[in-house]
Specification:
The protein is of the alpha/beta class and 322 residues long. It folds into 2 domains: 125 residues, 3-Layer(aba) Sandwich (Rossmann fold), CATH 3.40.50; 183 residues, Rossmann fold. The chain is built from 11 helices and 12 strands. The strands form 2 sheets. Strands 8-7-6-9-10-11-12 form a 7-stranded parallel β-sheet, covered by helices on one side. Strands 2-1-3-4-5 form a 5-stranded parallel β-sheet, with helices on both faces. Helix 4 links the parallel strand 4 and strand 5. Helix 1 runs parallel beside helix 11 and helix 5 packs across helix 7. The longest helix is centred in the C-terminal third of the chain and has 17 residues. It starts with a strand and ends in a 15-residue tail after the last helix.
């Protein structure tokens, strides 16, 4: 009977998942390794595993054919050269955050469109001061263009919400070729530099990969509209924060909404905390109900597919980390 190894460390949730898997797929033996020693003893008989697989353990995984990553986008270092070379198929938890992060993106867009980035600091100073003129500080969304960089499940959901507000949405994506509902035009990454000057909102949802590390730099901020806003809810290491600060100070873009950062927590003395036009949230865009249940549903679905020799869900291109 095939074996799935739950790699350490364990939590009450992973132990619960192991019990539920045992009941739901009795054809699969579930082994819960509480320690690295337990994992080393069990890995030789494991056909599948859940969690983070050190190279020392992977070298002993003679039967391993499926590895379920514990996150939608595991941190840098998860996809080691040994794991990339190994024939094991890796799957992840993408698609579980579409609604929560899509709403967070839209919260940033609406905040900037209504001038909240101007009024929030005044609230803290108890300062009653309106922007002059009826339309000052306001972006009329039916006349606004958003460029979504990374049109996966999250990007597609953001596009759907933006379209509901009448926005013109374009996108670039490294793998997707069909534009989802709400995206009027979809291009490959090579079109990014040409599209940046056209967007009122540039939204990053891309994972951190060798190709995306630091790709939003000063040169790309300079290509944006001076009235444009930059939003990143993907991964912090895709954006060079020093370059972003300089672009904001130079007036090369109007503002930025960030949920992810090159260094987390963001240091208390970092200039972004006090840079005008910046809205920050502490890596909470994915927070919401039902996430653990969605994770379990993916594990369960893939366990059944694995037993049935069917294509697995959320397969990762290991060399590109997503």
């Amino acid at each position: 009977m095939p074996t799935l190894l739950m790699l350490p460390p364990q939590s009450a949730k992973t132990r619960e998942w192991a019990e539920r898997l045992t009941q739901a797929v009795p054809q699969l033996t579930i082994v819960v390794a509480e320690t690295e020693t337990d994992a080393a003893r069990a890995i030789g008989d494991a056909d599948a595993a859940f969690g983070t697989m050190p190279d020392t353990l992977l070298a002993k995984a003679a039967r391993l054919r499926w590895l379920q990553a514990p996150q939608a986008a595991p941190p840098a270092g998860y996809y080691t050269p040994d794991l990339v070379r190994h024939p094991v198929t890796v799957t992840n938890f993408r698609e579980i955050y579409n609604d929560t992060i899509g709403a967070h993106i839209m919260a940033f867009v609406l905040a900037f469109a209504r001038g909240f980035h101007l009024y929030f600091p005044r609230q803290l100073r108890r300062e009653w001061r309106q922007e002059s003129g009826e339309e000052s500080g306001v972006i009329h969304l039916p006349e606004a263009t958003a460029l979504i960089v990374g049109v996966g499940g999250i990007g597609a959901e953001a596009a759907r919400l933006m379209e509901a507000f009448g926005m013109h949405v374009t996108g670039v994506d490294a793998r997707r070729r069909d534009a989802p509902p709400g995206v009027r035009k979809l291009d490959g990454p090579d079109a990014l530099d040409a599209l940046l000057p056209l967007a009122d909102f540039v939204v990053l949802t891309v994972p951190h990969t060798p190709a995306t590390e630091g790709f939003m730099d000063r040169a790309r901020f300079r290509r944006m509209k001076r009235s444009g806003f930059f939003i990143n809810i993907g991964r912090g290491r895709t954006t060079r924060l020093d370059d972003l600060v300089e672009a904001l100070r130079a007036g090369e873009i109007a503002g930025a909404g960030l949920d992810v950062f090159e260094q987390e927590p963001l240091p208390a003395d970092h200039p972004l905390w006090t840079t005008p036009g910046v809205l920050l949230t502490p890596h909470v865009a994915g927070h919401g109900p039902y996430l653990d249940e969605r994770r379990f549903e993916i594990i369960l679905d893939n366990a059944r597919r694995f037993l049935g020799n069917q294509p697995l869900r959320n397969v990762v291109d290991k060399a590109n980390w997503f």
